[in-house]
Amino acid sequence: MMMASLTRLRDGAARLRRCESGVALVEFAFSMPIILGMGMYGLEVTNYAMTHMQVSQIALGLADNASRIGQDSALSLTQFRESDVNDTFEAAKKQAGKMDITTHGRIILSSLERNADGGQWIHWQRCIGLRQYDSSYGVEGDGATGTSLPGMGPATERITAPDKNAVMFVEISYDYQPLISDTLIGKPKIRYTAAFIVRDERDLSKIYNPAPEATKATCNKYTT
User: Fold this and answer.
1) Nearest-5° angle of CA 64, CA 67, CA 68?
2) Rounded to whole angstroms, what are the CA distances from 212 to 1, 88, 100, 128, 217?
3) pLDDT one-digit tens code per residue, 125-181
4) Please, what is the end-to-end C-alpha distance for the chain in angstroms?
5) DSSP per-residue codes, the chain
6) How far is CA 99 from CA 37, 104, 170, 178, in A?
7) For the CA atoms of the chain, what is the radius of gyration?
8) How far apart are alpha carbons 69 and 221 in whole angstroms?
9) What pTM value is reported for the model?
10) φ, ψ for residue 127 (rounded to 5)?
11) How far, in Å, CA of 201 to CA of 73, rounded?
């Protein structure tokens, strides 16, 4: 009886050694974390690239809208109002959608003009967003006199305003919000600029604010 049991045990062990039915499952178990990690990384990188494109498009759209908007009048030049600024910001927020760009970023709109000395001048500046990012190229009032301000934008792509006109210059800084986890690519800051020359004959003397007055989106406020 004992000999028969030992024989069956040896036969069973031999069959077990020859069995390969679980090899694929073991290989899958080892490779699954790698495949899953690569898939998540690919999704995160794709989302990061799409966010870059979206922020770029928002900057372009805002600068374009700011260059066109204003109150037309047959008796005077087009007046640019505080409500127009707020409308362009609201359009940018709508375009951003679920990105919630004013919670995780900062939008700066500047009017770049030419001063009486022929130099570049940041006549006014408006901001929206909770992130405390300042303009990289100057603040309201810079270049009011003289020719010390070279313009706005990177040195290799400097933007300057023509005589008797203005450039709407937009800067957006946005803290990337990971799709899966910030351990994959972190939370880098995405930054884009855009500029459009004002399209109409605009009154450049100031931003108007007729009654009922609109809230000024000044750059010393951090709001959404």
Assistant:
1) 95
2) 105, 18, 28, 21, 16
3) 999 999 999 999 999 999 999 999 999 999 999 999 999 999 999 999 999 999 998
4) 85
5) -HHHHHHHHHHHHHHHHH--TTHHHHHHHHHHHHHHHHHHHHHHHHHHHHHHHHHHHHHHHHHHHHHH-SB--SSSPEEEEHHHHHHHHHHHHHHHGGG-HHHHEEEEEEEEEE-TTS-EEEEEEEEE-SS----SS--TTTTSSSS----BS-GGG-B-PPTT--EEEEEEEEE---SS-HHHH--PEEEEEEEEE--S-EEEEEEE-PSSPPPP--TT----
6) 25, 8, 18, 11
7) 30
8) 23
9) 0.85
10) -140, 155
11) 11
Amino acid identity, residue 27?
E
User: Length of the chain in residues, anyone?
Assistant: 224
Instruction: Please name the residue that has the structure tokens 């679920």.
Output: 98
